[in-house]
What we know:
Elements: E1 2-4, E2 6-8, E3 11-13, E4 20-25, E5 30-36, H1 40-59, H2 62-78, H3 80-91, H4 95-116, E6 124-128, E7 131-139, E8 142-146, H5 152-165, E9 169-173, H6 180-192, E10 199-201, H7 206-215, E11 219-225, H8 228-238, E12 244-248, E13 253-257, H9 263-275, E14 285-291, H10 295-307, H11 327-342, E15 346-349, E16 353-354, E17 365-366, E18 369-372, H12 379-382, E19 389-395, H13 398-406, E20 410-411, E21 413-417, H14 421-430, E22 435-438, E23 453-454, E24 457-458, H15 463-469, E25 471-479
Amino acid sequence: xxxxxxxxxxxxxxxxxxxxxxxxxxxxxxxxxxxxxxxxxxxxxxxxxxxxxxxxxxxxxxxxxxxxxxxxxxxxxxxxxxxxxxxxxxxxxxxxxxxxxxxxxxxxxxxxxxxxxxxxxxxxxxxxxxxxxxxxxxxxxxxxxxxxxxxxxxxxxxxxxxxxxxxxxxxxxxxxxxxxxxxxxxxxxxxxxxxxxxxxxxxxxxxxxxxxxxxxxxxxxxxxxxxxxxxxxxxxxxxxxxxxxxxxxxxxxxxxxxxxxxxxxxxxxxxxxxxxxxxxxxxxxxxxxxxxxxxxxxxxxxxxxxxxxxxxxxxxxxxxxxxxxxxxxxxxxxxxxxxxxxxxxxxxxxxxxxxxxxxxxxxxxxxxxxxxxxxxxxxxxxxxxxxxxxxxxxxxxxxxxxxxxxxxxxxxxxxxxxxxxxxxxxxxxxxxxxxxxxxxxxxxxxxxxxxxxxxxxxxxxxxxxxxxxxxxxxxxxxxxxx
Length: 482
Ligand code: NDP
């Protein structure tokens, strides 16, 4: 059986513990590989390798780093088909989605930051004719990147690309639920000529291996994407050590549909925003607010669109809903569907586990589920489900919907659907959300700031924000004549 080994100091190695974790394909329920169960000893080895690599990597001109990262980007693209299949087998998402979104985005992440560093500038402040202050930005040293299971290579590269581009060396940990593409990336880095120790990848459980990265005294910053509860634990461990922290956490995102929209096309987009990737995207719109005048017609159209998210074998091209990531997550999502019934909700579409035949008989599949009749303040509408389950809630006025949309601990993304530009602007300004999409969803421009308000996170990724996070500004004050 394939062993998913650590990548430390430029080569693959086994974990110090000698222990391995079973890796399950969520579409079949079968164990198909073994993952290194790393602990603080492996993390210490990785940090040591990263420390040794730092002086040379950070001193390399930006153009040199850029060339290496562009080679990695090109090689990810060369292996697109293999990586897409690996991602689908590890995560459960439809193969066409891995092929068209996840892996292409990993290619883009590497290329974007590889070129971004060639076009940055810093500030200068002329105090008077003889004194000038200028700012330089220095890489931090060894940084830690910890990523989740929903968009594995996509989010892994979203973190390591800016960290490496800015001149840091990295110790990274993918989720132990989906480590395969990060493991394959290590070989790509070797082939692309990334110097040993610049990127180190350690696999294992979050509380063992992830925590060891957070607590290591020589790791200067932590860039983390994952759940809010884990984010709190990481913040508590890192804050007394004065580490820089970027936390991208959970969401309970509102989708707001005003009564002036075209019903059929909007319902299609709203379903896409709710159910893409089995609803396992932090940006999915899981609370769908619809203005009362159109609610009946819109709900009917949305039910039809929900049924179009066909559940099936992720390798089949017509499948639009693959497997959720593991058995525990399936139980969690089904538990919330049960809770919705107890809270007085009505299942308008879906609502059950799907048991497929053949290859996928042991897989973890759930019907995309639309729930109506729940008040805004019930648990199902407050807690993050992170699966193929969304609720539909009527509203009357702009004020009402803004109040309900903001009535949550989270503030990651919101989507507004309207043809009235004034209403779009007014509502967008009032929503407590790091990202507001108007008449679109998941339209990303990698230059824009990305992140959440409230319990959805601290700090921003993307473009210059990410490069700022991974560097420390230093002011140099120069008097021309002593
Ligand atoms: P988790 O918080 O469970 O895990 C995220 C990562 O942190 C994993 O690699 C995990 O390892 C690791 N980890 C767990 N415990 C610790 C710890 N004590 N110290 C250090 N690392 C630890 O999240 P999920 O993987 O379940 O991802 C789903 C969550 O991520 C959802 O809440 C979702 O909203 C959020 N998310 C947010 C995004 C954003 O941009 N805001 C984007 C995507 C997802 P392991 O899995 O191996 O235990």
